[in-house]
Amino acid sequence: MKLFLATGNEHKIKEMKQMLSNTKIKVLCKDDFAKLPEVIEDKETFKGNALKKARKLCDYLQLPTIADDSGLVVDVLDGQPGVYSARFAGQDASDKENNDKLLKLLEGVKEEKRLAHFTCAMAFVTPEGREEIVIGKSAGKIALAPHGKAGFGYDPLFIPQGYDKSFAQLGSKIKNKISHRANALVKMKQILLEYR
Protein backbone atom coordinates (compact mmCIF):
# COMPACT_ATOMS: atom_id res chain seq x y z
CA MET A 1 0.00 0.00 0.00
CA LYS A 2 1.14 3.53 -0.78
CA LEU A 3 0.75 5.96 2.07
CA PHE A 4 1.45 9.69 1.99
CA LEU A 5 3.04 11.20 5.07
CA ALA A 6 1.94 14.82 5.28
CA THR A 7 4.85 16.58 6.91
CA GLY A 8 7.68 18.82 5.83
CA ASN A 9 9.76 17.82 8.84
CA GLU A 10 12.69 15.65 7.67
CA HIS A 11 13.17 14.25 11.18
CA LYS A 12 9.55 13.04 11.33
CA ILE A 13 9.80 11.49 7.85
CA LYS A 14 12.92 9.57 8.86
CA GLU A 15 11.35 8.50 12.16
CA MET A 16 8.13 7.28 10.52
CA LYS A 17 9.93 5.46 7.70
CA GLN A 18 12.07 3.64 10.27
CA MET A 19 9.00 2.67 12.27
CA LEU A 20 7.13 1.32 9.21
CA SER A 21 10.17 -0.28 7.54
CA ASN A 22 9.17 -3.89 8.31
CA THR A 23 5.69 -3.59 6.75
CA LYS A 24 4.41 -3.69 3.17
CA ILE A 25 3.55 0.00 3.41
CA LYS A 26 5.44 2.28 1.03
CA VAL A 27 5.74 5.69 2.65
CA LEU A 28 5.69 8.63 0.25
CA CYS A 29 6.58 12.15 1.33
CA LYS A 30 6.84 15.69 -0.04
CA ASP A 31 10.03 14.82 -1.96
CA ASP A 32 8.04 12.36 -4.10
CA PHE A 33 5.82 15.11 -5.54
CA ALA A 34 6.62 18.23 -7.54
CA LYS A 35 4.00 20.43 -5.92
CA LEU A 36 1.77 20.17 -2.86
CA PRO A 37 -0.73 22.61 -1.39
CA GLU A 38 0.30 24.41 1.78
CA VAL A 39 -1.76 23.70 4.89
CA ILE A 40 -1.93 26.38 7.59
CA GLU A 41 -2.03 24.79 11.04
CA ASP A 42 -4.50 27.19 12.66
CA LYS A 43 -6.58 24.86 14.82
CA GLU A 44 -6.56 25.06 18.62
CA THR A 45 -5.86 21.35 19.16
CA PHE A 46 -3.37 18.74 17.97
CA LYS A 47 -6.30 16.64 16.67
CA GLY A 48 -7.70 19.57 14.70
CA ASN A 49 -4.39 20.35 12.98
CA ALA A 50 -3.65 16.68 12.19
CA LEU A 51 -7.10 16.13 10.68
CA LYS A 52 -6.98 19.34 8.64
CA LYS A 53 -3.61 18.38 7.09
CA ALA A 54 -4.61 14.77 6.38
CA ARG A 55 -7.92 15.77 4.76
CA LYS A 56 -6.41 18.43 2.50
CA LEU A 57 -3.48 16.31 1.26
CA CYS A 58 -5.58 13.16 0.84
CA ASP A 59 -8.09 15.13 -1.20
CA TYR A 60 -5.32 16.64 -3.34
CA LEU A 61 -3.30 13.43 -3.93
CA GLN A 62 -6.14 10.89 -3.78
CA LEU A 63 -3.90 8.69 -1.62
CA PRO A 64 -4.37 7.38 1.92
CA THR A 65 -2.70 10.05 4.04
CA ILE A 66 -1.30 10.30 7.53
CA ALA A 67 -0.69 13.62 9.21
CA ASP A 68 0.28 14.30 12.76
CA ASP A 69 0.51 17.27 15.00
CA SER A 70 2.55 16.97 18.09
CA GLY A 71 4.05 19.12 20.74
CA LEU A 72 5.20 19.59 24.26
CA VAL A 73 2.76 20.28 27.09
CA VAL A 74 4.28 21.68 30.29
CA ASP A 75 2.03 21.44 33.36
CA VAL A 76 3.34 24.47 35.26
CA LEU A 77 3.00 26.62 32.11
CA ASP A 78 -0.72 25.77 31.75
CA GLY A 79 -0.05 23.49 28.78
CA GLN A 80 2.36 25.74 26.87
CA PRO A 81 3.91 25.52 24.33
CA GLY A 82 1.21 23.04 23.16
CA VAL A 83 0.11 23.47 19.54
CA TYR A 84 2.61 26.33 19.24
CA SER A 85 5.60 24.09 20.10
CA ALA A 86 7.36 24.50 16.72
CA ARG A 87 6.90 28.29 16.71
CA PHE A 88 7.03 28.96 20.46
CA ALA A 89 9.71 31.66 20.16
CA GLY A 90 8.33 33.02 16.86
CA GLN A 91 7.17 31.90 13.42
CA ASP A 92 10.59 30.82 12.10
CA ALA A 93 12.21 30.09 15.47
CA SER A 94 15.02 27.56 15.63
CA ASP A 95 14.96 24.59 18.01
CA LYS A 96 17.54 26.42 20.15
CA GLU A 97 15.39 29.57 20.35
CA ASN A 98 12.34 27.52 21.39
CA ASN A 99 14.38 25.65 24.00
CA ASP A 100 15.87 28.89 25.33
CA LYS A 101 12.42 30.45 25.72
CA LEU A 102 11.14 27.38 27.56
CA LEU A 103 14.12 27.37 29.95
CA LYS A 104 13.66 31.10 30.61
CA LEU A 105 9.98 30.59 31.50
CA LEU A 106 10.94 27.74 33.83
CA GLU A 107 13.71 29.65 35.61
CA GLY A 108 13.46 29.05 39.36
CA VAL A 109 10.98 26.15 38.97
CA LYS A 110 12.16 23.14 40.98
CA GLU A 111 12.89 19.89 39.15
CA GLU A 112 9.95 17.99 40.67
CA LYS A 113 7.56 20.68 39.39
CA ARG A 114 8.85 20.61 35.80
CA LEU A 115 6.45 17.86 34.73
CA ALA A 116 5.57 17.69 31.06
CA HIS A 117 4.44 15.34 28.33
CA PHE A 118 4.68 15.13 24.58
CA THR A 119 1.39 14.54 22.77
CA CYS A 120 0.99 13.27 19.23
CA ALA A 121 -2.35 13.30 17.43
CA MET A 122 -2.15 11.19 14.28
CA ALA A 123 -4.89 11.30 11.65
CA PHE A 124 -5.43 8.79 8.85
CA VAL A 125 -7.72 9.83 5.98
CA THR A 126 -8.52 7.80 2.88
CA PRO A 127 -9.95 8.85 -0.51
CA GLU A 128 -13.10 6.84 0.33
CA GLY A 129 -13.72 9.10 3.32
CA ARG A 130 -12.50 6.94 6.18
CA GLU A 131 -11.05 8.96 9.05
CA GLU A 132 -9.22 7.67 12.11
CA ILE A 133 -7.42 9.57 14.84
CA VAL A 134 -5.12 8.11 17.49
CA ILE A 135 -3.32 9.84 20.35
CA GLY A 136 0.10 8.96 21.73
CA LYS A 137 1.72 10.44 24.82
CA SER A 138 5.10 10.32 26.49
CA ALA A 139 5.33 11.61 30.07
CA GLY A 140 8.44 13.07 31.63
CA LYS A 141 9.99 16.29 32.87
CA ILE A 142 11.99 19.25 31.61
CA ALA A 143 15.70 19.24 32.42
CA LEU A 144 17.44 22.28 33.92
CA ALA A 145 19.68 22.53 30.81
CA PRO A 146 19.92 20.85 27.36
CA HIS A 147 21.71 17.49 27.17
CA GLY A 148 22.62 15.39 24.12
CA LYS A 149 22.98 15.95 20.39
CA ALA A 150 20.53 13.42 18.88
CA GLY A 151 16.90 14.13 18.01
CA PHE A 152 15.29 17.50 17.37
CA GLY A 153 12.92 20.04 18.87
CA TYR A 154 12.74 19.80 22.64
CA ASP A 155 14.55 16.42 22.78
CA PRO A 156 17.62 17.84 24.59
CA LEU A 157 15.37 19.12 27.40
CA PHE A 158 12.85 16.28 27.75
CA ILE A 159 13.65 13.46 30.18
CA PRO A 160 11.10 10.66 29.70
CA GLN A 161 9.59 8.96 32.73
CA GLY A 162 11.70 6.06 33.95
CA TYR A 163 14.93 7.47 32.47
CA ASP A 164 17.60 9.85 33.71
CA LYS A 165 18.70 10.98 30.26
CA SER A 166 17.04 13.24 27.69
CA PHE A 167 15.57 12.02 24.40
CA ALA A 168 18.61 13.63 22.72
CA GLN A 169 20.95 11.48 24.85
CA LEU A 170 18.96 8.26 24.51
CA GLY A 171 19.07 8.33 20.69
CA SER A 172 16.56 7.22 18.06
CA LYS A 173 16.63 3.50 18.86
CA ILE A 174 15.17 4.02 22.34
CA LYS A 175 13.15 7.12 21.44
CA ASN A 176 11.39 5.28 18.61
CA LYS A 177 10.15 2.73 21.16
CA ILE A 178 8.90 5.11 23.86
CA SER A 179 8.05 8.44 22.20
CA HIS A 180 4.60 9.97 21.81
CA ARG A 181 4.85 9.38 18.05
CA ALA A 182 5.88 5.75 18.60
CA ASN A 183 2.89 5.25 20.92
CA ALA A 184 0.54 6.80 18.35
CA LEU A 185 2.09 4.80 15.52
CA VAL A 186 1.66 1.48 17.35
CA LYS A 187 -2.09 2.22 17.40
CA MET A 188 -2.07 3.56 13.83
CA LYS A 189 -0.06 0.62 12.51
CA GLN A 190 -2.91 -1.71 13.49
CA ILE A 191 -5.37 0.45 11.54
CA LEU A 192 -3.05 0.60 8.51
CA LEU A 193 -2.46 -3.16 8.44
CA GLU A 194 -6.21 -3.80 8.53
CA TYR A 195 -6.90 -1.23 5.81
CA ARG A 196 -7.33 -2.60 2.31
Automatic annotation (TrEMBL):
Listed cofactors: Mg(2+)
Residues where substrate binds: 7-12, 70, 152-155, 175, 180-181
Catalyses which reaction(s): XTP + H2O = XMP + diphosphate + H(+); ITP + H2O = IMP + diphosphate + H(+); dITP + H2O = dIMP + diphosphate + H(+)
Residues at which Mg(2+) binds: 69
Quaternary structure and partners: Homodimer.
Biological function: Pyrophosphatase that catalyzes the hydrolysis of nucleoside triphosphates to their monophosphate derivatives, with a high preference for the non-canonical purine nucleotides XTP (xanthosine triphosphate), dITP (deoxyinosine triphosphate) and ITP. Seems to function as a house-cleaning enzyme that removes non-canonical purine nucleotides from the nucleotide pool, thus preventing their incorporation into DNA/RNA and avoiding chromosomal lesions.
Family: Belongs to the HAM1 NTPase family.
Protein name per Swiss-Prot or TrEMBL: dITP/XTP pyrophosphatase
Organism field: Halobacteroides halobius (strain ATCC 35273 / DSM 5150 / MD-1)
